[in-house]
């Protein structure tokens, strides 16, 4: 069974940096769009950044200029480099990817289990 495996969360002081990584386990035929969402306590899950298979990116206004999403297609991995972190960035961050597992089937969205990012003031 395919899963998205995330890593890189943790505790950091305001102004610091973290890099999140996410890759699918198991056999994948093709990875389409990938992205990161986050959910803070008491708030709805929100899009942080996304990247297409061709490398086009999209960012939430709140993270533009501080976060960078990238992907390594050979490693089937998506990254989220987070700089100048603020306490408001504290949340559980979820990786998502649209995956095609086999020919003659549909691609579906998969989600990671989430990784906690805590930014102290």
Topology:
Elements: E1 3-7, E2 10-13, E3 18-25, E4 30-39, E5 46-51, E6 57-59, E7 67-72, E8 77-82, E9 91-100, E10 108-111, E11 115-120
Parallel strand pairs: 2-11
Antiparallel strand pairs: 1-3, 3-8, 4-5, 4-9, 5-6, 7-8, 9-10, 9-11
Written overview of the protein:
With 121 residues, the protein is an all-beta fold. The protein has no helices and eleven strands. The strands form two sheets. Strands 2, 4, 5, 6, 9, 10 and 11 form a seven-stranded mixed sheet that branches. The mean pLDDT is 96.
Helix/strand order: EEEEEEEEEEE
Query: Which spans of ≥5 residues are poorly predicted at pLDDT below 50?
Result: none
- Main beta sheet: 7 strands, mixed
Span from first to last CA? 40 Å
Approximately how much beta-strand content do the residues carry? Answer: over 45%
Oligomer: single chain
Beta strand count: 11
Identify the notable features of this structure and list them briefly.
mainly beta, 4-stranded antiparallel β-sheet, 121 residues
Summarize the structure.
The chain is mainly β and 121 residues long. Helix content is 0%, strand content 56%.
